[in-house]
Write a structure and sequence with these properties.
The protein is an alpha/beta fold. 25% of the residues lie in helices and 19% in strands. Strand 8 and strand 9 form a beta hairpin. One of its GO terms (cellular component) is cytoplasm.
Length: 244
């Protein structure tokens, strides 16, 4: 066992770089030398074979073997035997539905929260690590049995968080307005808006903002606040009743 260890990345590709290029040093220090193989979950994209090839190439270049769960005849057993789990980006609804369809929600929770194996998510894989996928940017192209996700942390994240463009004439809702509408509902947890290039490192009861860009934190009934890399977000891990 051991405390939970999570690396929750906003995006897989940062402008000007390759797949996971902007966070590869973070991945290496996160996984360390104990982990030899990573279990990859490609369910968020339709072409799982191509997705697994991309991920395998990257992780092998960093010195890790990669097994893709879609190639396993028993996904539950694959999770039970895994040394580390990486869930990639794509469509969050498609991803969560596949996790439910394959009975993986309780299995991944147990491996991460009880057994202490490292969990890495990017984009949709970060969304499903939180309480729910209510604050994803994705279209509901399929219908998961629930919007409740893995609950590895007691709050929600909005990956690819976008600030309003002051020069734009676009009259649609901003990301901030959408999150505010979510918080108009009762008992809604905090939402951490992770800009592209940002990631959250969780080690036990400590959470730290890492990467090259900041984050915006939304608490129900309060004004959003701006945070720089290095910010200690450990207070978000205290699973308090939102009504308090």
């Amino acid at each position: 066992g051991g405390p939970r260890r999570l690396l929750l990345v906003s995006n897989s590709t940062l402008h000007g770089g390759g797949y996971l290029g902007h966070c590869q040093q973070h991945i290496k220090s996160f996984l360390g030398e104990k982990v030899k193989r990573v279990l990859f979950v490609p369910y968020a994209l339709h072409d799982r074979d191509a997705y697994a090839r991309t991920a395998r190439e990257k992780f092998e270049s960093l010195g890790y073997g990669l097994d893709s769960i879609h190639e396993s005849c028993d996904p539950v057993e694959a999770v039970r035997k895994s040394e580390a789990i990486f869930i990639g980006g794509g469509n969050t609804f498609r991803l969560l539905k596949a996790l439910y369809d394959n009975s993986l929600i309780p299995e991944i929770r147990k491996r991460v929260l009880e057994d202490g194996i490292p969990y890495m998510g990017s984009s949709a894989g970060t969304n499903v690590a939180t309480i729910s996928i209510n604050t994803t940017n994705d279209m509901p192209i399929v219908y998961p049995p629930s919007l409740q996700a893995l609950g590895l942390v007691p709050f929600n994240i909005n990956p690819h968080y976008l600030d309003p463009d002051v020069k734009s004439t676009h009259m649609g809702e901003t990301r901030e307005e959408r999150i505010r509408q979510y918080h108009e509902e009762p008992d809604t947890p905090p939402v951490l808006g992770l800009r592209e290039g940002a990631m959250l490192l969780v080690e036990g009861d400590k959470a730290t903002l890492q990467g090259v860009t900041g984050a915006r934190l939304f608490l129900r009934g309060k004004k959003p606040t701006e945070h720089e890399p290095g910010t200690d977000f450990s207070f978000l891990l205290i699973d308090s009743n939102p009504l308090n």
